[in-house]
Amino acid sequence: MPIPTHREIAPAIHYWGTPVVLVSSRNPDGGVNVAPMSSAWWLGWSCMLGFDASSQTVQNLRRERECVLNLASGDDAAIVNALALTTGSAAVPLHKKLLGYRYEADKPKRAEITLLPSTTVRAPRVGECRVHLEAVVAGIRPFATGDPRMAIPACAVEVRIVKVHVDETLLDGDERIDPERWHPLLMSFRALFTRGDRVAESRLATGSESAYAPWKRGPLVRLASKALGAVAQYRYGVEDEGGDGDAAE
Ligand SMILES: Cc1cc2nc3c(=O)[nH]c(=O)nc-3n(C[C@H](O)[C@H](O)[C@H](O)COP(=O)(O)O)c2cc1C
Question: In this structure, are 222 and 110 located in the same domain?
Answer without folding.
Answer: no
